[in-house]
Specification:
The chain has 127 residues and is α+β, with helices and mostly antiparallel strands. It has a domain of 88 residues: Arc Repressor Mutant, subunit A (Orthogonal Bundle). Helix content is 31%, strand content 18%. The strands form two sheets. Strands 1-5-4-3 form a four-stranded antiparallel beta sheet, covered by helices on one side. Strands 2-6 form a two-stranded antiparallel ribbon. The protein starts with 7 loop residues before the first strand and ends in a 19-residue tail after the last strand.
Length: 127
Amino acid sequence: MASVVVTMHADEPTGSQADSHDAESAARTSSDARVMPTSRGAVLLNLASDQYYSLNPTAAAIWQSLADGRTSDEAADALCREFEVSPADARACVTAFMDELARERLVTLPTSPTHAPEEPNDGQTRS
């Protein structure tokens, strides 16, 4: 069984924390992101920040899954098939990479329903 290491290299890291996300909803890729496949993965450009990132083959595969509108679970399933890794390792890689992409504002993560604000349910109409 192959090991999977997801790497994304940038010239300047950012440091905000990503929110918890729902594995059954698709992340939205940024309209400011451009990707170019290479022989060793891909290069990802953030037009908003003029940052570019070198993606290894695993990260490139995850990015492509997200860009195709797949959920994180579907991206992990694709990693299992393509790189022959365990489902647990694939999910961990996808989650870590999505969190890194969110910190760089390259994706918008779906919010977990357990973290969504609750609406009052007292029968009164709110305006």
